C-alpha cells in the first residue's frame, strides 16, 4: 500500500512539470512564432509602404527631370531635386544618365551605379525597382525610377533614397515591445499554472498523500474527507473503498487465523485427552479390581473381632483404598470427553442441585453457604452431569479454603453466564493461578488434595466452549468464575 502511495505521489508531484512542458511551453512557442511571423508581416508591410512612398515621390518629379535631362538644364535638375525633399521624408536624390554616370545629386546618393544590379534591371526593363543598400556608409532604401523621354526612350535614372534608421527604430521598438509582452505573458502563464495547480489540485493531492502514508495494518481508512476536483474525489473514494476492503480482508484473515488456532488447540487438547484417557482408563481398570479385593478383605477382617490396634490398621487401609478410588474416579472425570452429549438446559436447575449436594458434603459443613441469582432462567448447552461436576468441584475447593463463608452467585456477562464462587479464605497467590488447573498440582499440603479437582473443572469448561478465571474476592479470599456460553435459541 505504501509503495502504491509513493507511485501515485510521484505521478502528481511531476504534474506541475508535466503541465508546464506539455501545455505552457507549447503555448509560449506558438505565441513566440506568431509574434515572429507578425513582426515579419509588419516589416514587410513597412517595406512596401516605404517603397510606395518613394515611388510616388519619384513619379511626381520624373517628368520634369526627364525633360531637364534631355535639355541638359542643370538649373531645372537642381530645382527638381530640391522639390523632392519638400514632398516627403527623403535622405537623398540623384540623377544618372543612361550610361550610369551621375549628373546631379542632393543628400545621400550613389556616385556611380554602373555596377548596380538594381539600376541595370530598371534600365533593361523600364520598370521601377529598389532595395536596401549601403550608400556613403549608411543603410538606406534606394528606389530607382527610369527617366523616359518624349520619344519613349530611357534617358537616365532617378535614384531616391531614404535612411533605414527610421524604419529600423520602428521595427526594433516593435520587437522590444513584442519580447516584453511575450515575457510578461510567459511569466504570467507559468505562475497561473503553478499556483492554480497547487490551489486546485496540488494541496489536495498532498493531503491525500499524507493520509495514504498513514495507512497501515489495522488502520486502512482515510482520516480526511474527499476534497478537490472531481477526479481527485474519485481517487479518494477508490482508495477509501480499497482500504475498507483491506480492513475487512484483514479482519477476516485474523478471524480465520484465530478460529484455526482455536481449532488446532482444541484438536491438540482432544488428542491429548484421548491419549491420557486411554492410559487413565487402563490404569483404572488394572487398579480397580485389586483395590476392590483389598477393600473387601479389610472389611472381612474388620468383622473378625480383631483387637483395637489391629482395627486401627484396617481403618487406615480402608481410608487409603477409598482415597485411591477417588483419585482414579477424578482421573477418569478429568480426561473423559463427551461433547456429543451436550444438550440445551437451564443452568439454574443444575446449580440448585449442586448446592443441595454441597450442603450435605462434610467438606462444606463448617461454611455458611450463600446463593444469589439462581431464580433467573440461564439457558445454555451442556452435558448436565459434567457441568454439575465442574460446579461441584469449584464449590468443594472453595469450602476447603474458606474460613466461615462461601458465596455462590450467577450473573449474565456479555454472551456468557458467569458462576462466581467466592470464599473468605487465604486466597491464591497470583503466580499460582495459572498452575492450579494443571493435573496433580495442589497448593495444599501433601495428603490433603489430589490436584485433580480443578483439572477436572478446566477440562469440562473446554469441552463446553467456556472458560474459568481466578481473581481476588471481595470477601478477602479467592473468587473463581465459570463462564458457560449462553444459548439464545432456548
UniProtKB/TrEMBL annotation:
Alphabetical UniProt keywords: ATP-binding, Kinase, Membrane, Nucleotide-binding, Phosphoprotein, Transferase, Transmembrane, Transmembrane helix
Domain Histidine kinase: residue ranges: 282-488
Catalytic activity, EC: 2.7.13.3
GO molecular function: ATP binding
Pfam families listed in its UniProt record: HATPase_c, HisKA
Catalytic activity: ATP + protein L-histidine = ADP + protein N-phospho-L-histidine
Catalytic EC class: transferase
Transmembrane regions listed in the UniProt entry: 20-42, 176-198
Location in or out of the cell: Membrane
The keyword Transmembrane is assigned to this record: yes
PANTHER family: SENSOR HISTIDINE KINASE TRCS, SENSOR HISTIDINE KINASE YKOH
Protein's name in the database: histidine kinase
Species for this entry: Marinobacter alkaliphilus
Amino acid at each position: 500500500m505504501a509503495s502504491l502511495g509513493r507511485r501515485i505521489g510521484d505521478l502528481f508531484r511531476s504534474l506541475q512539470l508535466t503541465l508546464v512542458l506539455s501545455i505552457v511551453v507549447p503555448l509560449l512557442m506558438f505565441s513566440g512564432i506568431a509574434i515572429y511571423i507578425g513582426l515579419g508581416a509588419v516589416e514587410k508591410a513597412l517595406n512596401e509602404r516605404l517603397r510606395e512612398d518613394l515611388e510616388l515621390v519619384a513619379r511626381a518629379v520624373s517628368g520634369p527631370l526627364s525633360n531637364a535631362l534631355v535639355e541638359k538644364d542643370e538649373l531645372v535638375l537642381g530645382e527638381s531635386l530640391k522639390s523632392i525633399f519638400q514632398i516627403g521624408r527623403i535622405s537623398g536624390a540623384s540623377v544618372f544618365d543612361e550610361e550610369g554616370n551621375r549628373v546631379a545629386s542632393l543628400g545621400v546618393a550613389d556616385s556611380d551605379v554602373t555596377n548596380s544590379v538594381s539600376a541595370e534591371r530598371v534600365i533593361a526593363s523600364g520598370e521601377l525597382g529598389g532595395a536596401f543598400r549601403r550608400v556613403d556608409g549608411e543603410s538606406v532604401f534606394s528606389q530607382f525610377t527610369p527617366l523616359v523621354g518624349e520619344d519613349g526612350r530611357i534617358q537616365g535614372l532617378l535614384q531616391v533614397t531614404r535612411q533605414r534608421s527610421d524604419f529600423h527604430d520602428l521595427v526594433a521598438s516593435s520587437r522590444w515591445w513584442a519580447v516584453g509582452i511575450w515575457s510578461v505573458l510567459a511569466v504570467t502563464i507559468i505562475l497561473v499554472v503553478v499556483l492554480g495547480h497547487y490551489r486546485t489540485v496540488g494541496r489536495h493531492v498532498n493531503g491525500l498523500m499524507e493520509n495514504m502514508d498513514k495507512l497501515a495494518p489495522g488502520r486502512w481508512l482515510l482520516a480526511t474527507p474527499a476534497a478537490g476536483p472531481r477526479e481527485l474525489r474519485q481517487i479518494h473514494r477508490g482508495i477509501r473503498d480499497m482500504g475498507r476492503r483491506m480492513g475487512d480482508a484483514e479482519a477476516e484473515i485474523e478471524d480465520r487465523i484465530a478460529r484455526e488456532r482455536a481449532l488446532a488447540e482444541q484438536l491438540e487438547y482432544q488428542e491429548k485427552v484421548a491419549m491420557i484417557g486411554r492410559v487413565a482408563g487402563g490404569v483404572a481398570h488394572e487398579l480397580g479390581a485389586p483395590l476392590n479385593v483389598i477393600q473387601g478383605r479389610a472389611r472381612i477382617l474388620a468383622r473378625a473381632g480383631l483387637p483395637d490396634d489391629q482395627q486401627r490398621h484396617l481403618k487406615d487401609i480402608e481410608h487409603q483404598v477409598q482415597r485411591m478410588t477417588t483419585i482414579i474416579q477424578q482421573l477418569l472425570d478429568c480426561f473423559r470427553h463427551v461433547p456429543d452429549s451436550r444438550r440445551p438446559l437451564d443452568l439454574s436447575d443444575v446449580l440448585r442441585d449442586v448446592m443441595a449436594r454441597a450442603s450435605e458434603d462434610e467438606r462444606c459443613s463448617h461454611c455458611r453457604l450463600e446463593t444469589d441469582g439462581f431464580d433467573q432462567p440461564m439457558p445454555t448447552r451442556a452435558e448436565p452431569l459434567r457441568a454439575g461436576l465442574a460446579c461441584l468441584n469449584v464449590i468443594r475447593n472453595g469450602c476447603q479454603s474458606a474460613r466461615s463463608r462461601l458465596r455462590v452467585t450467577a450473573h449474565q456477562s456479555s454472551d456468557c453466564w458467569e458462576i462466581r464462587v467466592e470464599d473468605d479464605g487465604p486466597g491464591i497467590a497470583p503466580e499460582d493461578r495459572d498452575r492450579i488447573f494443571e493435573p496433580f498440582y495442589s497448593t495444599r499440603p501433601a495428603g490433603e488434595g489430589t490436584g485433580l479437582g480443578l483439572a477436572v473443572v478446566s477440562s469440562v469448561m473446554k469441552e463446553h466452549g467456556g472458560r474459568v478465571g481466578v481473581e481476588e474476592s471481595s470477601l478477602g479470599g479467592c473468587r473463581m468464575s465459570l463462564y458457560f456460553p449462553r444459548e439464545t435459541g432456548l
